[in-house]
Design goal:
Blueprint lengths: L71 E2 L2 E2 L1 H11 L11 H22 L17 H18 L35 H20 L3 H4 L2 E4 L7 E5 H27 L1
Antiparallel strand pairs: 1-2, 3-4
């Protein structure tokens, strides 16, 4: 098998090339031009399609899951239509976009009620099944590990200033750049559900304290963390950190429920 690693193909031209069953990881296609390309059976994860144009496209059996903004299909911005339909299907989804402290507290309470039901459902499965991955996605336990990582990153680190708040079982996202010696990242760990839930309870307690003390003044402020780790940013709105917590919890619960249904089948 031919392998290309750490090479610069800027300005290269590929014509009549067979890339069937190839693998692309951390590849930059910025400014690339593609014509008469067959993407049948392609799976794309963690991709950015900003300022992308697809013309003369035939789509059938296409599934898109992600954050959509300014997505114009045949002259129609479909993103607001999709958002409205998702809100119609589940009115609690609106609670994940709060505007004041009480709204954040209500949103978190609603989210945790949903997660209680999902975790109760997961407990009806054999423990080994909760380590199974469906269609290449995270297992149920990996999903909980990732949320523990996200909560520690955006609340403990960004809002409370704990430089390295992570537990050894926390799990960054797959495409993360990595922070050797700073952020733990054990993809092969197989902790029990109860072990991961114990970490989760600690994170939930911290978020609860932050939300109890939340004020309009805090929401209007910004936070900066530049020490090694994640996030490492300046001037991040306090509000945005809490919105990440709600969004991560909401979306990953939907993924978890989807995969539990697949495992039942």
């Amino acid at each position: 098998m031919t392998e290309f690693r750490e090479q610069d193909f800027s300005g290269a031209c590929f014509e009549d090339v067979n890339l069937r069953d190839t693998s692309f990881t951390r590849i930059r296609f910025n400014g690339a031009r593609m014509r008469e390309v067959d993407f049948g059976g392609v799976r794309v994860h963690g991709a950015l399609f900003g300022d992308t144009r697809l013309r003369g496209v035939y789509m059938r059996g296409v599934e898109i899951s992600g954050e959509l903004r300014d997505v114009v299909v045949n002259g129609v911005d479909v993103a607001p239509l999709i958002e409205a339909e998702l809100d119609r299907r589940d009115p609690d989804r609106v609670l994940m976009r709060p505007g004041d402290p009480d709204g954040f507290r209500a949103g978190w309470a609603a989210l945790e009620r949903r997660w209680e039901g999902t975790i109760a459902r997961a407990r009806t499965f054999p423990e080994d099944t909760l380590h199974e991955r469906v269609d290449g996605e995270w297992s149920f336990i990996q999903t909980l590990r990732h949320l523990n990582f996200a909560y520690a990153s955006w609340v403990d680190r960004m809002l409370l200033g704990v430089e390295a708040p992570w537990h050894p079982l926390d799990l960054p996202w797959d495409e993360a750049p990595g922070w050797p010696g700073v952020v733990p990242w054990d993809r092969e760990a197989r902790p029990s559900l109860d072990e991961v839930l114990a970490v989760r309870e600690e994170r939930k307690a911290t978020i609860g304290r932050v939300l109890t003390a939340l004020t309009d003044e805090l929401l209007a402020g910004e936070v900066t963390r530049t020490s090694p780790g994640y996030p490492s940013e300046e001037g991040v709105p306090y509000r945005e950190c809490l919105l990440v917590v709600l969004n991560e919890g909401w979306e990953h619960r939907l993924f978890a429920e989807r995969d539990l249904t697949a495992l039942e089948g």
